[in-house]
């Protein structure tokens, strides 16, 4: 083992070493640039409000305080937004997964009579879309505006996710389906007990795509449900809050403006609210990140 | 076994009642999906008719007055809208070029790393920002580029600047800031597909090149780049249509009154006049124009790729 690596090292000349050192330095810098703003937000969120306004906080809070989190948690809108967001993420992801998987199952059956025409029908939807206003009018006509269902139903089937799932299902050997059919299993039975268990990794990928989309969405809340405050989402509340902070910063100078309690300032509350909304993603990320890559490479390269 | 093969000619002739009955479950499910697709994806296309009407909610599509190209004429004689097209296309192109170049560069540099553990760690960190919402990202960008923020602090400490700049009150900084935000958020994510392509290049090519005395740079130039070519072209065709879609959220969230002349995009215009002022026909006309441009760009680039003998989308 040692001999091998020594042999490899001896084959590298000066230029190679220079490249390796430069490349490593660059990639380390890249990681710092990626992580620093997030860690800095974390540090600011745990800092005392008035102190944070002075700036100059890097990776460690200067004057530790939990006031900003206290203020965020007790914000009425953010609480309601969190409940709605969790609900839409759980319900929306489960339903979308079933809907996308079932369609992918149908279009990946080799014997299915309308296989290519049904695929084409859905691929078209990836490129031609009606746009914001026809969409809004449609939701109004279907009486979906000002309802929770507008978060779930319109985006239920996505052609991109169906393509990812279909590609994976097509790569499974036909013999599974054939032997099940010989045993008298119908298509639904094959979907539920044979194909789905084999598709667990790709199901995880698609579920994560959909879940992140739900967690981060705010535009549908603003466009369809702005009149129903009980249907607000976490990100939309954050957006409204950031917007109001910017307005007040525009009027007064950015420093000095404090809200009710003297230890809470927009700078720290903004940081704390950002951290709260990204927390679930950051916490689950190390465990789930490998599924993201699997899905993208299945759907992209093999397609 | 050949009986199970659907492409066998003998079976194809018998694709009749028996087969339909056998597949009845699939056909019912397919029909449901077609109904859903028509309602949520195809029906809004009919809504494009609104662009040629003075649409009222009361009249609907069939009861509203037809006005021909009135709204399109209005748009193209409006200086604001012409400037908005410029903003949209400029930011779209800058973002596309910036994110593509950085993603390819990052993928190549990462592929040169031999330590698997280090490579995985860097890659995992690199696409974390992709999963943060634009709300959070723009909030971070705002903080970073503020007068007390980290960018000014860095530039002053490096003696590039004497005093901090207020980046969000000068129009010339807006497009670069939007590009930087996109690069920060998407470089690692976009690199995944390039990295997967590089991994799939036959290693014997590199070995043969090394035998012939090719250096690192020559291997990148003569093997990695040609290997990436078709992926780059496919992704460019897919993304070129988005040049005119690119950026609603970033511009909407980062823009402010001072920056209106450079920050407004077509979607913001649709939101402001179409939704905000309830002028549905004007908003739809702007949306139809956008789809027209994006379709034209996709077909144009696909045609060019076909002519030059490259891989193409369709």
Structure, explained:
The complex is a heterodimer of chains A (303) and B (314). Chain A is mainly α. Chain A contains 14 helices and no strands. Chain A has a domain at 67-173 and 200-303: MetI-like fold (Orthogonal Bundle). Chain B folds into two domains: 2-68, no CATH class; 72-307, MetI-like (MetI-like fold, Orthogonal Bundle), CATH 1.10.3720. Chain B has 16 helices and two strands. A two-stranded antiparallel ribbon of chain B has the order 1-2. At the A-B interface, helix 2, helix 5, helix 6, helix 7 and helix 11 of A face helix 3, helix 6, helix 7, helix 8 and helix 10 of B.
Give the H and E element order of chain A. HHHHHHHHHHHHHH
Low-confidence stretches of chain A: 1-9, 252-261
The arrangement of helices and strands of chain B along the chain is: HHHEHEHHHHHHHHHHHH
Describe the global form of chain B: globular
CATH architecture call of the domain at 67-173 and 200-303 in chain A: Orthogonal Bundle
The major beta sheet of chain B can be summarized as: 2 strands, antiparallel
**Strand-residue proportion of chain B:** under 5%
Radius of gyration of chain A: 25 Å
- What is the CATH fold-level name of the domain at 67-173 and 200-303 in chain A? MetI-like fold
Per CATH, the superfamily of the domain at 67-173 and 200-303 in chain A is MetI-like
Q: Kindly report the greatest chain-chain contact and the residue count on each side.
A: A-B, 90 and 88 residues
Based on DSSP secondary structure assignment, what is the total number of beta strands of chain B? 2
Within the CATH hierarchy, at the fold level, what is the topology of the largest domain in chain B?
MetI-like fold
How many helices of chain B in DSSP terms?
16
Proper CATH architecture of the largest domain in chain B: Orthogonal Bundle
Q: Give the overall shape of chain A, derived from the CA principal axes.
A: globular
Number of strands of chain A: 0
Structural class of chain A: mainly alpha
Strand order of the largest sheet of chain B: 1-2
